[in-house]
Specification:
The chain is of the alpha/beta class. Helices cover about 35% and strands about 25% of the residues. Bound molecules: NADP nicotinamide-adenine-dinucleotide phosphate.
Length: about 425
């Protein structure tokens, strides 16, 4: 065997990865030259879903990343530590690294890629975003000749599953989350998914590749789906929208001067039903890339799961093996496969975002309420696309407003003024519109 793999983790993704590597028939012939050499796990007693010699398993993961025989370390153990330290140690020992760990890359990418470039090794991460969907490699290669205008993704299967069910069943978020947990579609602790943090990790990686600079994760605006109500989903539907948790990175074209800013954000969004992302439902993921001159390209598929994610992991292993086999000089990293970003992208503050908004108001049912709302919006240069009085809740009337494109700062100021009106009881929801 030409290439030896040290696998860190034999859980969902590690098992799928081993299954592909141990059964290469009918796949790319180079896979026959790749050997699962060592496998690091936490417990040696657990039953495993893949047949392999027990002697390959060890709980001493450090011995794998320092083993002189290992060519490529595949980190599919998850978590921040010890994953980060093991990746860095593997790099320091001259190993190429393949990882599915978006949490580590989005936080420590700077440190990891700087170390990898110094050591002349590759760090590949196709599986970190969109599971089985090949999107990282196209962004690095085929799409890189374009000026990218935007990357918009449904990159979290759990939240897309919950929102899709809220849409079809009309249920509330908390009921459907509880059911999704029972069915195994949501984690026992769903925070990273429902609060949009997982999507932000993934968008940090996508935006960095699409816009050629590092992204500081805390600068990504992040709002989850827990406040989306069945009422909003129903009103959105009537107005011709479906609500999706979108991760968006966008820069106006022509590309502005270096140092000017990029929008990067994650939030529930009203998506027009005619938009290509509106029909992505259930646990599926999709990433829409828009660039000049290519126009729109959309990637769609399974964003998680053992087999799909392993497909992405093994594609990275194959790429590295192919370069090594063709005599790739380790000191000269392939420029389309390595990461050479030095600078951080400047991220625009949310007040400067220009977008449409949807807002739902509960108002005291008195004459002239809609006029007062219109006046307050007008005072802050917010023009309205539609205003609908939708129903009566006891003493209160419900009014739903969709704005034209407006600066977020102006919209927020208008809302501050509206909150002071004695006819306004509350503003239960404010959502952005794509
Ligand atoms: P998992 O099923 O929980 O498996 C983790 C594996 O790593 C297990 O084999 C575990 O050993 C081992 N492990 C964890 N911590 C360890 C430690 N400290 N020392 C030794 N071994 C340790 O996780 P997964 O779902 O495969 O996810 C792995 C990575 O892939 C994560 O970064 C995740 O974000 C990413 N990813 C997952 C998916 C997916 O569909 N699951 C999709 C895309 C990306 P034991 O088996 O002995 O417990």
């Amino acid at each position: 065997m030409a290439f030896k793999i040290g696998l860190l983790g034999l859980g969902t993704v590690g098992t799928g990865t081993a299954q592909i590597l141990l059964d290469p028939q009918g796949r790319h012939p180079l896979l026959q030259e790749i050997e699962v050499y060592r496998v690091g796990v936490r417990s040696l007693d657990k039953p495993r879903l893949v047949e392999m010699s027990e002697s390959l398993l060890t709980t001493d993961l450090e011995s794998i990343v320092t083993d002189p025989h290992v060519d490529i370390v595949v980190e599919v153990m998850g978590g921040l530590e010890p994953a980060r330290s093991l990746i860095l140690k593997a790099i320091a020992n001259g190993k190429h690294v393949v990882t599915a760990n978006k949490a580590v890359i989005s936080r420590y990418g700077d440190e990891i890629f700087t170390a990898a470039n110094q050591a002349g090794v590759y760090v590949m991460l196709e599986a970190a975003v969109g599971g089985g969907i090949p999107v990282i490699q196209p962004l690095k290669q085929a799409l890189s000749v374009n000026r990218i205008h935007s990357v918009t993704g449904i990159v979290n299967g759990t939240t897309n599953y919950i929102l899709s069910r809220m849409q079809t069943e009309g249920g509330e978020f908390s009921e459907i989350l509880a059911d999704a947990q029972q069915l195994g579609y949501a984690e026992a602790d769903p925070t990273a998914d429902v609060d949009g943090l997982d999507a932000a990790d993934k968008m940090a990686i996508l935006a960095s590749l699409a816009f050629g600079g590092r992204i500081k994760l805390p600068e990504i605006y992040c709002e989850g789906i827990s406040k989306v109500s069945a009422a909003d989903i129903a009103y959105a539907e009537k107005l011709g929208f479906t609500i999706k948790l979108l991760a968006i990175a966008k820069q106006d074209l022509p590309a502005p001067e270096k140092g000017t800013s990029l929008q990067v954000r994650v939030h529930p969004t009203l998506v027009p039903k005619t938009h290509p992302l509106a029909s992505i439902s259930g646990v599926y993921n999709a990433i829409l890339v828009e660039g000049e001159p290519i126009g729109q390209v959309m990637f769609y598929g399974r964003g998680a799961g053992s087999g799909p994610t392993a497909s992405a992991v093994v594609s990275d292993i194959l790429n590295i093996a192919a370069i090594l086999k063709s005599g790739g000089d380790a000191a000269k990293l392939h420029p389309l496969l390595s990461c050479s970003h030095q600078d951080y992208c400047a991220i625009a503050p949310m007040e400067e975002l220009v977008t449409r908004f949807y807002a739902r108001f509960l108002t005291r049912d008195r004459p002239g309420v809609i006029g007062k709302l219109g006046t307050s919006f007008g005072n802050h240069q917010v023009s309205l696309e539609s205003v609908v009085q939708t129903g009566i809740h006891g003493e209160l009337a419900e009014i739903v407003v969709v704005t034209h494109d407006v600066r977020e700062g102006n919209f927020r100021q208008a809302l501050d003024e509206i909150r002071t009106l004695d006819t306004i009881d509350s503003i239960p929801s404010i959502l952005r519109v794509l």
